[in-house]
Structures are given as C-alpha cells and as structure tokens.
Specification:
- Helices cover 68% and strands 10% of the residues.
- It has 295 residues and is an alpha+beta fold.
- The chain folds into 2 domains: 199 residues, Alpha-lytic protease prodomain-like; 86 residues, Alpha-Beta Plaits (2-Layer Sandwich).
- A 4-stranded mixed β-sheet has the order 3-2-1-4, covered by helices on one side.
- α7 packs antiparallel against α8.
- It comes from Siccirubricoccus deserti.
Length: 295
C-alpha cells in the first residue's frame, strides 16, 4: 500500500473518531452549535471515504480506455466533498432557524466543550499530515481534505468559544447564531472546493508562478534551438501535462534535436516530479517569433 493510500485510509479512521467525540459533545450539551459542528464531521467521514476510493482509483496505471491515466478521479472526490458540505450547511441553517424560536441553555457545558476541544486538536494534527502528504504526492484529494479540516478546526474553535459564552452569560440566542455562522463558513469552504475541482476537470492551465518556472526551464536548457512556442499546460490530479513546439534549424540532425528535447525534459521533471511532457520539433520555417523564446 502506497503512503498516499495509507494516509487516505487514516483519514477515514480519524474522521470516525472525531465524529464520535463531537456527537458525544452534542449529546452532553444539547447545543445547536455543537450539533452543527458534529454534522460537519459526518461530512468529513463521507468525504474521507470518497477520498480513499478516489486515491485508489487514481493510482491505477494507464490502460487502453484511459491512456492518460486515472488521476482526474481525485477531482471527483473534491467535488463530492464540496457538495456534501453544501447539504450539511442547509441542514444546519434549518436547525438553527428552529432553535431561534425555542432556545435552550446547554447542559454539562464544561464536559461537552472539553470533548469538543479534544476532537478539534485531533483534526488540527491530522490536517497538518494531509497538507504535508498532499504536497509531497501532488494529490488534490488529500489537499482538499486538509483544507476542509482546517476550516473545520476554525469553525470548532469559534463554536467552543461561543458555547462557553452562552454558558457563562445565559444569552441563549447566541447558540443558534453560532450554528448559522458555522453553516455559512462551511458553505463558503464547500464552494471554494467545488470551484478548484471544477477547474481541474476543465483542464485549467497551471498557476502563473509554476508557468514562469516552466518557461524559464525551457528557455535555459534549449541551447541550439531557435524558439519554443504554443506552450500549453494542465493538471490532471497529481500529474502535470506540458506540451509545446520546439523550432530548430532545418539542417539539424534528428539526434541533435532529440538531445535538446532530452535536456528540456530533464529540467522540467526536476521542477515537477511525474510531469508528462510532449515536444513537437519543427524546422525553422515554422518559427512564430513569440511564445517561449529560446535564449
């Protein structure tokens, strides 16, 4: 089992443990805000399972029906997670609306808040693991799960502080207000996840900073060529696809042109591990005098 797959499986176990703790905090207190926090953890469990399935599927090698691999499967996981967050937010808002008309003081607030804080600490620690592994493996699914957990941690801290304030002040309407704010926060988080994942499914180009490094690597390691143009990039899960046209002198041998391509590919793969690079070699009559000009 790969490290990425082990981390995805660990996310399912962590999400279940955190859900159990948050449900316990809600049962102890009866707080609507803690109910909202627990409901978000239900989404975490579903999202963790979806991430595990997506990571397993994306690790499958290319085949006859999927010659470019299965890495885009991770984007479907992130889209599903965003959609689940939206559903959870709607349920929380409905519960909060009802609690505004019939508010009640939280019971056993101290114990419930301690349980909730323990769950939040676990989430914070695991989010750090997901971010680190997501960057290492260039996995959109793990990174999306990490971002969601960070949003969950921030939400939980606000809920803990708010429920504590309700217990101390006796201002009961603060509890459903916190639940509503929690719903709006996770709704924003879910919308951002969907936006980023749809961008991957739509083959958006890489971010400007990475694009600049790609252009620099091409121009720096293409000595002997005339120019490179029509540079195109896209992400597909953890893989970055790069393609462009390389113009060389018409008298250059195939061996010499191939050597230039090898140098460029080596430099690009040093920047992005696992990049898939396609270079179309053209004679000098095809030069466009724009694009990635060779220095």
């Amino acid at each position: 089992m790969s490290r990425t797959l082990r981390v995805a499986a660990g996310s399912v176990l962590i999400a279940c443990a955190v859900l159990a703790l948050k449900l316990g905090a809600w049962v102890l207190t009866g707080s609507v805000a803690l109910f909202a926090d627990a409901l978000e953890s239900v989404v975490n469990v579903a999202a963790a399972v979806a991430t595990l399935v997506a990571v397993q599927f994306s690790a499958m090698p290319p085949d006859a029906n999927h010659p470019y691999g299965h890495t885009k499967a991770e984007y479907f996981s992130a889209v599903l997670e965003g959609a689940l967050i939206v559903v959870a937010a709607i349920v929380i808002l409905d519960e909060a609306w009802g609690a505004i008309y019939a508010p009640r003081a939280p019971e056993q607030a101290a114990v419930g808040l301690l349980v909730s804080m323990a769950a939040t600490a676990i989430n914070a620690g695991w989010a750090a693991v997901l971010f680190r592994q997501g960057r290492r493996a260039n996995s959109p699914a793990l990174s999306a799960d990490g971002r969601h957990l960070v949003a969950d941690v921030v939400t939980s801290l606000g809920v803990v502080a708010g429920v504590g304030a309700v217990a101390l002040t006796g201002i009961l309407w603060l509890d459903p207000l916190l639940a509503a704010l929690t719903a709006l926060n996770i709704l924003w988080s879910g919308g951002r996840l969907v936006r980023e994942s749809v961008g991957g499914l739509m083959d958006e180009a890489v971010e400007p900073g990475l694009l600049g490094r790609i252009r620099t690597a091409v121009s720096t390691h293409a000595a002997g060529a005339i120019e490179a143009h029509d540079l195109r990039t896209r992400h597909a899960g953890r893989i970055t696809f790069i393609e462009f046209h390389l113009v060389v002198p018409g008298s250059m041998s195939v061996d010499a042109a191939h050597a230039i391509c090898d140098r460029i590919e080596t430099a690009l793969k040093a920047e992005m591990d696992g990049a898939i690079i396609t270079i179309h070699v053209e004679p000098e009559g095809k030069a466009k005098h724009h694009g990635v000009l060779v220095l």
